User: Fold these one by one.
Assistant:
Number 1:
Amino acid sequence: MNKKILSIIGVIAAVIILGALYNTYLGPSGVEGEKEVSLQVIVDKENINEEFTFQTDHEFFGELLEEEQETLKLSYDEHSTLGMMITGALGYEVDSSSEYFHILVNGEDAEYGASGIPLIDGDEYVLELRGFGEMDDPDEGEEAEDKEVTFRVTIEKENIAEEFTFQTEQEYLSQLIEEEGETLEAEYEDTDFGLSITEILGYELDASTEYLHILVNGEDAETGVSGIEMIDGDEYELELRSFAPMDDEEDEGEVSDTMEVTFIVTIDTEDIAEEFTFQTEQAYVSEMIEDEAEVLELEYEMTDFGMSITEILGYEMNSDGEYLHILVNGEDAETGLSGIEIKDGDVYELQRRDF
Amino acid sequence: MNSNVETFNGMKVQDLVLISILSASLTAGKLALSFVPNVEVVSLLFMVYTVALGVKRTLLISVIFATTEIFLYGFSTWVLGYYLIWPILILATGVLKGKVKSEYGFAIISGIFGLSFGFFFAVFESFFYGIAYGMAYWARGIPLDILHGASNYIIAIILFNPLVKIFSSQLKQYYIR
């Protein structure tokens, strides 16, 4: 036989063997049997966010999508090399020149296309519409995207309740406030805790008694304005609220009862974990620990945001890299120490954490 | 018009025309086979051009070819890789030109090139997206790399010699040195 033909046959045989080895050792493999998986479809710009739960016997994600095509109103192309390419979901058709459906498996980027993702019982899949060039890590230079957000300012005592709609490419709420500083008549300071608004819509805050409470889509914000990453369609609200009343402002005649609370301090880096039981008549945690400053070897500062601990149980806080996380009965506190009202039997915990 | 008029860096008008036509032939060859995954004639044509026309001109052809890819598919990291990977093949062919006489040598080079195509891009993409991405990219593409290497070998073993012969004779006939 011709030498060339022999070499070609040899190469084809090698391809078949190598292909089989790949499929056995490296290729994605499915799992047989019934599985329950969830699928979330997100198209932010159309406010589509739906979650489905499917029972399936299929081995691969692509097969499940084919089966549930009608439920998901799914359209797709079969690409010769890439397998299934999703072109539409829940009635939304992808503009393939600028966007695609990104697949996440249990919160991680999928390593394969839909056809190559093995279905595993309990897995959570997400199909999220993304633009080309979007990175997963915002720190790695996410492309600036135009967002439309609603911004409300409520200052009840001045009858101020204004709503703004802003188009912005900024990433954080603080940047938007800086950008729209003129419209919002905002004055602010840069503090260790990020941007701190001192004046808005002509109203000057009295930092010792009041603050602007932040709500994101109606929920209390977990961080300050500098930590809030904006998402298209979000609604932000700044509402003027008062700090806890001071002793001298307490309603006259109110009787303070003695309460017993547990106070735990955990500094993981120093193996400090101490528990105290305090009897107190104070209304707020900050007041109680002021009383117990000696026991707690406490140093603190009063800031615009209330009490800020600088040293506790002999451990000096490094304000750049760490903070004391507050837990109330095991749940993350929604305010600082000055805002936590003491209830009998409560357990307060301060945990050192890294930013 | 005298086609021998010197234009730039000793290049003649006929060089400029030839480089343009051969770049276009690469793009056409790539598009013509684009419906078959990882089966292509671009590697073969680059090797044929290098043997018949020399390294310098073929390098210029590769630059135009890679730039045309940007016009066709938009700017992306893989296109940047094209500016590197084809010159590597051209330089390897240029080095082998005087040493390898049979088409088997060129077919093996073409096969190895196809096999390592995914690995090269995995390394290249790692610079942009990290090593984990590069590893996933490479592992995912191994079946296609195997196909690429095998098809490159088969295409070269069949077409390399006939194409070099035809191309060289056409150059002798029409190309004024």
Number 2:
Amino acid sequence: MKTTKPNLFPIYIIWYREILLYLRNHLKLFTSFFVPILILVFFGTGLKAFLPQNLLHYDFVQFFFPGILSLSCLVMVMSSTISVVWDKEFGFLKEILVAPIERWQIALGKILGATTTAVIEGALILFSAPYFGFPLSWVLYFEVLGIIFLFSYGVGGLGLFFASRISRMESFSILTQLIIAPLVFLSGALFPLNNAPLWMLNIARYNPLAYGIDALHWIFLKPIVSPSELNNLILFPFAKSLLVLIAFDFVISFLALRVFNRYLIK
Amino acid sequence: MTNPLNQNNSSEIISVEDLYKNFGPLKAVNHISFKVKKGEIFGFLGPNGAGKSTTINILCTLMKPTSGRVLIDGYDLVKQPQAVRHLIGLVFQEIILDSHLTAEENLYFHAMLYGMKQKDFILKKREVLTLCELWEKRKWKTSSFSGGMKRRLEIARALVHSPKILFLDEPTIGLDPQTRNKIWDYIFTVRKEKKMTVFLTTQYINEAEICDRIAIIDEGQIVALDSPENLKKMIGGEVIIFRTVDNDLAEKEFKKSFPEIPLKRVGGSFRIETNNGDEFLPALIKTITPRITSMELRKPTLEDVFLEITGRRIRESETEEKDHLINLDSILEFLNPFGPIFPQNNSAEEKNENNKT
């Protein structure tokens, strides 16, 4: 009976549970709708009014948008995977752990579920892109969602990697301050890293988030900025970003699954 | 591995041999061996922190033993955890339900995780929900359930995949006495209808009394294992408990008159175990000159058994305050770059290897 079931079915069940919980958790659902509106109305309007005649050769809002988009997804995916800590503390995870399924299936289902919620969030935010002056086409739309998927998956893996290792919620704030914050500041989401000093650039080179955000910049800015200008805003060639992103996803899956497996059985 | 066809014809469904579990220097389970027969209700009785939950977590594959051998229906727990997981249903100490989901959906996810077919699940769902009297409320979100209803749903959920053994870790903790009795009714019905083995832990004496056999556990060790009747016979026919205004004098007088009868002081009162209490009582009253403030003659309970063996009460440890100090080690554990992401070896496996050779 066990062999007739494909191995992927438990992953699907964990994933489905994650999605159902997301849809049922009205607060979380509301936030995922609210953040795009917030970005569009307040942030977009405010920034557009503030920075129209800037000294830069490009519209800074257009540089900012991909960064904000990816950070919203990051928050979404992090909050989903970090819930493992909460699950551990209050026991919801036990019910899944005593079920006759493999640990890696649980971990993978969890990461994929979190990634899916982030992609939904990204898809919603993307609808506001025309407001910021991006010519939104279906090609662009799905290209961006593809990158968001790869990016969120990596972040999800990272989140699970840390969540499996920490045993209480207090550790979580330290985690965000010591690890997530530096990763975000050195990702190029908030300002272009090209003009940053070399030491910062060198650190950013080892930041997996930087590659995902760089790839998004490339996709968004290529149609609207001249090639020489694009070079000033992009750190890495697109192909390299894509490659690093995929490689990171593989490596972090492996590490997260391994740590998840080891730390949950005491 | 020991028996590929798993023809477990013996009458034992759980067999635990030389089980140890250490958490650093703490010996949570310190050399435990016992066997549980098919179809019996087997109870673990002991105070908080005695190792009850640790043992049940090991038996449910949630923890790895430091050493020892556990067979569940012929399957080795460490080597074939997946096979064991199919055989067991579990009700945890904490209420573990997805509160955003309905009762039915909670069961559905459980069934899917256990690889049940939709068709089987629909039949089984009706059966277990009816048994636990939740069929009418199956479309309710569990967040609207009362504590007792949640527990019943958890029992229903543990039964969905037709396990051979039902594990209950303090199933009635935090419930009022009325609900508690009802939960017990369900457990008995389940046992009777499904011919299931039930393994439970409890710190309530009256709950332990209804088990077929109980193991009294203290400080990680089994200090007694038998049926409640036999355990109580250990003590003798009756227990007399009395208090006087001057305990020291009373003790002196008692020892002078009845040197052959052991007298125990527990807190501010005396305990005597005797076989003919009603005859002994008048003699006792005559002997002791200090005024007697209270006196009680009763049949022994498991509490007396526990007291007799360990010299302590079961529930007194409850008053101890929990240590809420923040443990910096555990907060910073994930920062340690050399932490055991890739530990060299697993001590549990290693010890098991050593034990075999």
